[in-house]
Amino acid sequence: MRRLGLIVCISVVFFLLLQSHTVAQSASNLQADIFALRSQVSELRAQVAQLSRQSQPGTRLTVPIRPLRSPNDPTDSQIIDRLSILAIEAKDRLSALEARVSKLEKRLQ
User: Fold this and answer.
1) String of b and e for 10-38 (b: at least 16 CB within 10 Å)?
2) Chain-centre distance of CA 10, in angstroms?
């Protein structure tokens, strides 16, 4: 009975680890797919602009092209979070330096 419980526990842990690995893989695959789709959209925009220039040489259609983000680039909210953390850390360091300066000033007086 004890062996059966141990086997069941190991099976559950193994299943959970396998499932979390699959979720991480699917998230990575989604990011790669999004990056590929953005690249295709950019290529299509360039082709549309080229075709419009060929069909009407006097008029020019401008197609805005946004720079593509790679799958590893952080999102805007991640950038803001990082900047917030850096600002808080800088403020803490400044407070610590001010405290040290005031202690040194007291020693010199």
Assistant:
1) eeeeeeeeeeeeeeeeeeeeeeeeebeeb
2) 34
Q: Which structure tokens are listed for 86?
A: 């850096």
* pLDDT tens, the chain, 109 aa long: 667 777 776 777 776 666 655 555 566 667 777 777 888 888 888 888 888 777 765 555 565 666 666 667 777 788 888 888 888 888 888 988 988 888 888 888 7
Q: Are 71 and 35 in contact (CB under 8 A)?
A: yes
Question: How far from 70 is each of 23, 26, 73, CA to CA, in Å?
Answer: 20, 17, 5
| Dist. CA 25–CA 19, nearest whole Å | 10
Helices (H), the chain: 2-55, 76-108
Enter the pTM of the model. Answer: 0.35
Rg (CA), the chain: 28
Q: Which residues contact 56 (CB under 8 A, 6 or more apart)?
A: none
